[in-house]
Design brief:
The chain is α+β, with helices and mostly antiparallel strands. The protein is built from 6 helices and 14 strands. The chain starts with a strand and ends in a 9-residue tail after the last helix. The site of zinc ion (ZN) has 6 residues, from loops.
């Protein structure tokens, strides 16, 4: 059995994670997360993502019946020409240029990806492809960050099933680290790709494997930063989601759905998750070719009613303490029955 207290190296971010399983059994008298049992309507006229409603911008949503995307009315990044910042070396600034999109997975307000049909989730996956392909083709965009924040625990006020895109003219801090680590690994290892080498290891054939597909694996990473973090990684090196063929895309979307269902079972409700679709940056760097697409699912919970907090040590060191042994997390997730749809 692996040691319950050890530093583990996270090779994409090139940082140490502290696995401290005993801290997870520490008596807990802190905050609990209320379980949400409210009834959610199929259509909410006050929801700005539902079909046919008028948004704050004055635009009226179409009566869409398939996944649909639009520019965020409250964008953090703006496409217009903005004034560049000055050159003060200590208080440096730059214009926050880019594009923010809202991606509605389904017209029904009360659906989640866990209970979409196979046809519906494939349509969602096609939207991942078309959005990445069209936005990354814009020369002014350096990185297309596609993500889904699900659940009130991660600050989502709107329950409508949706994701977001932040497309910026710069590559994020984590993006630069993940790109450099994969590029340097390939250079130092005779052209081998980091993620494909990683998931071929024995650990990812049993103890850290959640699901083996034909084209993908769902794994708990050896140095998981969040207690039940998982990655869905392709067996072949692919930079971005738009490069998968239809068979691969269908498997990816169904494995993603099954992982969402596992979390719902594990936490006994529609589980909060921060999901990131790790597509390659799209600036002019040659190193983008060495980036491998994967989906990272990061539930913010350590059990069904307790949040994993990023407190003093973690916030000030950027070295996360994970209170759940990754091998135990993988075993718990394997025990779930992802074919069962939530009621
Ligand atoms: Zn809605």
């Amino acid at each position: 059995m692996p040691a319950e207290h050890q530093w583990r190296w996270q090779p994409l971010l090139e940082q140490w994670v502290l696995i401290a399983a005993a801290s997870g059994s520490r008596p807990w008298s802190g905050a609990s997360v209320a379980q949400h049992t409210e009834t959610v309507p199929e259509h909410d006229p006050d929801c700005y993502l539902c079909p046919g409603v008028t948004r704050a911008s004055g635009d009226i949503n179409p009566n869409y019946t398939a996944p649909w995307a639009f520019d965020n009315d409250f964008a953090s990044l703006l496409p217009h020409e903005l004034e560049d910042g000055g050159n003060d070396p200590l208080h440096k600034t730059a214009a926050a240029r880019g594009n923010c999109r809202v991606l509605c997975w389904h017209p029904s307000h009360n659906k989640t990806l866990a209970d979409c049909s196979e046809g519906e989730i494939l349509e969602v996956a096609k939207l991942w492809q078309s959005e990445y392909a069209s936005i990354s083709a814009d020369d002014s965009i350096a990185q297309v960050m596609m993500f889904e924040n699900k659940g009130k625990e991660v600050g989502v006020s709107n329950l409508h099933p949706h994701g977001q895109i932040y497309a910026a003219d710069t590559v994020s801090d984590y993006g630069r680290r993940i790109r450099l680590s994969q590029h340097q690994y390939k250079q130092a290892n005779n052209g081998q790709q980091l993620l494909q080498t990683l998931i071929a290891r024995d650990e990812y054939k049993d103890a850290l494997l959640v699901e083996q597909g034909t084209h993908f694996k769902t794994i708990v990473p050896f140095a998981a930063r969040l207690p039940y973090e998982t990655w869905i990684v392709p067996l072949r090196h692919v930079q971005s989601v738009d490069r998968f063929d239809l068979e691969e895309l269908l498997e990816l979307s169904l494995m993603y759905q099954r992982q969402v269902r596992r979390y719902d079972q594990l936490f006994r409700r529609s589980a909060p998750i921060m999901t990131v679709f790790q597509n390659a940056p799209c600036d002019t760097s040659q190193a983008n070719a060495d980036w491998c697409f994967h989906i990272a699912l990061q539930p913010p919970l350590r059990d069904s009613d307790t949040l994993k907090y990023f407190a003093g040590y973690e916030a000030s060191s950027n070295n996360v303490v994970n209170p759940i042994q990754p091998e135990n997390a993988a075993a718990a997730l394997r025990d779930c029955s992802p074919e069962v749809q939530p009621t």
